[in-house]
Structure prediction request, 124 residues.
Amino acid sequence: QVQVEESGGGLVQAGESLRLSCTVSGSTFFTYRMGWFRQAPGKEREIIACINQNGATTSYSGPLKGRFTITSDNGKNTLYLQMNSLKREDTAMYYCAIEPTWRTSCPRPEFAYWGQGTQVTVSS
Prediction:
């Protein structure tokens, strides 16, 4: 079965940086969409950005543009989220998902494989 695992979260101070990683194992997909999502307490899940097998990216959060960057290493089946200049409001559980599809820009939640999430907490 496909396994998705996020890592790299932690407790940081405002202004610092983190790089989250997402590894996918169990299957090899040649056509896929991957994405980073986050959910803060009491709020709806938010799409951050997505990427396809060719490295084409789509960003969905305007305020994060310029601070958050999504990249992938296809050879290692790894997805990254570089987070710079972190703010207190970035505190959330960050999730990675993958769907083997060509239909959409981002993984569709009901069809995607999800990781367990990695917690990012930003203090000030």
